[in-house]
Amino acid sequence: MSFDPFGSTATIVVFGASGDLAKKKTFPALFGLFREGHLSSDVKIIGYARSHLEEDDFKKRISANFKGGNPETVEQFLKLTSYISGPYDTDEGYQTLLKSIEDYEAANNVSTPERLFYLALPPSVFTTVASQLKKNVYSETGKTRIIVEKPFGHDLESSRQLQKDLSPLFTEEELYRIDHYLGKEMVKNLLVLRFGNELFNGVWNKNHIKSIQISFKEAFGTDGRGGYFDSIGIVRDVMQNHLLQVLTLLTMDRPVSFDPEAVRDEKVKILKAFDALDPEDILLGQYGKSEDGSKPGYLDDSTVPKDSKCVTYAALGIKIHNERWEGVPIVMRAGKALDESKVEIRIQFKPVARGMFKEIQRNELVIRVQPNESIYLKINSKIPGISTETSLTDLDLTYSTRYSKDFWIPEAYEALIRDCYLGNHSNFVRDDELDVSWKLFTPLLQYIESDKSPQPEVYAYGSKGPKGLREFLNKHDYIFADEGTYQWPLTTPKVKGKI
C-alpha cells in the first residue's frame, strides 16, 4: 500500500461516463489506483453522461472491466461513485452536478475545493463541455484541473481552433492533454535509461548510432470500425501523437531537471529541429485478405468505401538537423492487421572497425514498450568452448522475469490520472508542442489524402506488412542480422537460433 494516496476530499468527474473509453480505461484506472492505495477512500467520483442509467446499472457497467482486487475492494470503490444524467450543452445538468459536488464538500468541511474533470468525449463536444464547466462548476477558490483526450484536432488548423476555444476558459496550468503512451512504463523509463547511465548517454549521438526505428504493430484490423478509421488513417491515429511522443523523448537533449516545463522545453526544441517530412520518403500500405482467406481485407468492411485509399500501414523516414543527430536515419512505422501486436524501439549502433573481424554484427539496443516490457542489448560474444567464432547474443532485462509478480507497474491511464491530480505536467502535451507536431505532419497528411498520393500497396492480413518494407529499412541503414548468427543460451553451440 502507498503512503501517499491522493484525492482526499477531492471530486473527480468523468464526462462521457457511459461510453467505451470511460468503461474500459478511465474507471478501471481509478479503481486500479484505489486498489493499490494511491487513491483516497474519501474521494468523490461522479460519472456524467447524456444516457439515462440507473445507479446500479452504471456501477455494473464500469466494474465489468476492473482488474485485480477482491469483491470487498470493488464494493468499497463503488461506494465512492455516483452517476448524473444530463445534456452537455445546457445548464441544468451542470447545476445538478454542482449541487452534488458542493454537498460533498460541505459534508467534508472542504475550504479549498479540488476538482478534476476528465473529458472522455469526442472532440466535437470539448468546447461545449469546457464552456459549461467554466460557467457552472469552476472553483474560484480552489484548484480545477481538466483532462482532454486525444485527438487534439484533425490537422494544424483544427488544432489551433481547439486551442483558441479552450485557452480563454482554462489556463495551460489547468489543462492536461492526455496521450496515454506517455504513461507507459517503458516510455517513462526513457529519460532515466538515457541520462541516468553514462554507458548510453555517452554514445547517444551520430558518432555511435547508425539508425533508429520505432515500430507499432497491431495483429487486428478495423473490425467493423472502418468507417471511423477511414477518416483518420494510421498516420493520424498513432504516428502524429503516440510514436512522435516516443521519438521526442528518445532524441531530445538532457533537461536541466525533472521539472515538467524543463522536460517539455526540450521536447519542443527537438521537434523544431525536424526536417519537413518528405512525401517521397514514405511507404504506404493497406491490408487485404489473409493468405488463407480467413480474414477480411480492409475494403471488405461494409463501413468502408470500396474505392478507399485509406492507409492502414505507413513507414516514414525522418531527419533531425542538429549537432547530435545530423545524418542519422530514423524510421517510424505503424500498421494494422500484421503478424503480431508489438511496440518497440530499435537503436542500431555503428559497426566496429573491421581489422581483426572479417564479419561481425552491429550492436543493437531494443526497448519493447509492449507487450511484456523489456530492454535488451545485442552484443557480440565468443561461442563458448574451443571455438573462436563469435555469436550475437543479448543482455536481457525482461520485466516479467526481473520483478516479482506482485510488483505493481501502473498502467498508462493509472499513472497519468495520478500525475494530473498531483499537478505534474511532465507526461502531458503542451500547447506549443502540439502546434509544432501538427505543423510537421499536416503537409504530409494532405499529400497522403490527395489525388497525388499513390495507391497504397496491398499486404496480406497477418503478414509482416508491405513487401517493400525490408528494402525501405535497408535504405535507411537498418541492417538485418544474418540468419543463424543470433543465439540464445543453448546446451550446445552447434545449433543456432534466428533473429
Automatic annotation (TrEMBL):
Keyword Disulfide bond: no
GO cellular component terms, A-Z: cytosol
Annotated Glucose-6-phosphate dehydrogenase NAD-binding domain residues: 13-189
PROSITE patterns in UniProt: G6P_DEHYDROGENASE
Keyword tags: Carbohydrate metabolism, Glucose metabolism, NADP, Oxidoreductase
Ranges where the Glucose-6-phosphate dehydrogenase C-terminal domain occurs: 191-478
One annotated GO biological process: glucose metabolic process
Enzyme class (EC, first level): oxidoreductase
Pathway: Carbohydrate degradation; pentose phosphate pathway; D-ribulose 5-phosphate from D-glucose 6-phosphate (oxidative stage): step 1/3
Enzyme Commission designation: 1.1.1.49
Pfam family, one: G6PD_N
Domain of life, source organism: Eukaryota
Catalytic activity: D-glucose 6-phosphate + NADP(+) = 6-phospho-D-glucono-1,5-lactone + NADPH + H(+)
Record's keyword annotation contains Electron transport: no
Molecular function per GO: glucose-6-phosphate dehydrogenase activity; NADP binding
InterPro entries cross-referenced by the UniProt entry: G6P_DH (IPR001282), G6P_DH_AS (IPR019796), G6P_DH_C (IPR022675), G6P_DH_NAD-bd (IPR022674), NAD(P)-bd_dom_sf (IPR036291)
Function: Catalyzes the rate-limiting step of the oxidative pentose-phosphate pathway, which represents a route for the dissimilation of carbohydrates besides glycolysis. The main function of this enzyme is to provide reducing power (NADPH) and pentose phosphates for fatty acid and nucleic acid synthesis.
Similarity comment text for this entry: Belongs to the glucose-6-phosphate dehydrogenase family.
NCBIfam families: zwf
Cross-referenced HAMAP family: G6PD
Protein name, as recorded: Glucose-6-phosphate 1-dehydrogenase
Organism: Scheffersomyces stipitis (strain ATCC 58785 / CBS 6054 / NBRC 10063 / NRRL Y-11545)
The organism's taxonomic lineage, starting at the top: Eukaryota, Fungi, Dikarya, Ascomycota, Saccharomycotina
